[in-house]
Every structure is written in structure tokens, then in C-alpha cells.
Amino acid sequence: MGKVIINSYEEFEKLVGQQIGVSDYVELSQERINMFADATLDHQWIHVDTERAKTESHFKTTIAHGYLTLSMLPHLWNQIIEVNNLKMMVNYGMEQMKFGQAVLSGQSVRLVAKLHSLANLRGVAKAEIKFTIEIKDQPKKALEGIAVFLYYFN
Q1: Is the pLDDT of residue 1 over 80?
Q2: d(CA 56, CA 70)
Q3: Which residues contact residue 37 at a Cβ distance below 8 angstroms, ignoring those fewer than 6 apart?
Q4: Rounded CA gap, 43 and 37, in Å?
Q5: What is the C-alpha separation between 61 and 57, in angstroms, rounded?
Q6: Mind spelling out the 3-state secondary structure of the chain?
Q7: Among 78, 91, 74, 92, CA closest to 4
Q8: Band of the pLDDT at 2, cuts 50, 70, 90?
Q9: I need a labelling partner for 9 at 20 to 30 A (CA). Which of 35, 95, 114, 120 fits?
């Protein structure tokens, strides 16, 4: 499935209720986890202490921060869709977001996205995207929810 190209509100509207796409997988390596820990000042041992995790964690390895998994959403979203003719796009919020399963260091995740709803708010497109972050070769999802974006078309 190729990248979906949207040039107007009307084109976006045709996708309501449909799956928009599936991203490529991206690995959440220990290096990425450590950089996220440094950026957020969250150095909890379950994320960064590989030796301790081997013996004390029931995962037997470190795990990605839940918010690292969430923060992959913009990168993965940009693999799925390109929205043109915009003044700007704003992240508006998250709804019904739930973590389902921890992502182990070295596992890969991808995004599956569906356009849940689209509303025209006085010329601003409010898009509710049902998203699922899947873990490669795992039956349970890492994360699910609805991301809300505001698209300001020209």
C-alpha cells in the first residue's frame, strides 16, 4: 500500500471509516531507548539498566518507555499519509489511549491507522485517527487509541 496523498478536505472526507494505511516497522533499539531516557530524564532501570533487567525484570530485558512508543506516532504517520495545501497541522489530543503490551528492547513496531471521523470546524478539519501500534510477530498490540489532529487547509 502506497502513501495516501490528500490535497483537500473533500479528499480527506472520502476516507472516513476506512483504513488509511500501514507503516513500515521501526526498531526500538536500546540506543533509541537510552536517548529517549536522556531526553525525558526518565532513567528508570527497567528501561536503561540491561544487566539488572536480565535478573530482576519478568521481561528478562529492558523495555521501551510507553511514551517512546507513543512518540513514534508522527514518524510512522508520515509514512502513511501526506496532506498538502496546509497552513499548518496541530496535534489536538489523544483519546481512549491504552497500552496493551510492553515493547522489549530490540523489537520493532508499526502503525495501522484508520480515519475514525472528520469534522469541519469553521474551515479547520478535525481528524480523529484510530491508531494501533503493533509489535512485529506479537499478537497483542503495544498501544491503541484515537489521535486528534487539526488540519488548517489553505
Answers
A1: no
A2: 25
A3: 43, 44, 47, 48, 65
A4: 5
A5: 7
A6: CCCEEECCHHHHHCCCCCEEEECCCEECCHHHHHHHHHHHCCCCHHHHCHHHHHHHCCCCCCECCHHHHHHCHHHHHHHHEEECCEEEEEEEEEEEEEECCCCECCCEEEEEEEEEEEEEECCEEEEEEEEEEEECCCCCEEEEEEEEEEEEEC
A7: 78
A8: confident
A9: 95
Q: What is the pLDDT of residues 39-78, one digit of tens each?
A: 999 999 999 999 999 999 999 999 999 999 999 999 999 9
Cα 44 to Cα 55: distance, rounded to the nearest angstrom: 15
pTM score: 0.92
Nearest CA among 30, 23, 115 for reference residue 73: 23
Separation CA 107–CA 118 (nearest Å) = 33
Each residue's pLDDT tens digit, 71-80? 999 999 999 9
Is 23:80 a contact under the CB 8 Å cutoff? yes
User: How large is the average pLDDT for residues 72-94?
Assistant: 95
Smallest CA-to-CA distance from 101 within 131, 132, 71 is with: 132
- Given a contact cutoff of 8 angstroms between Cβ atoms, the answer to whether 26 and 103 are in contact is no
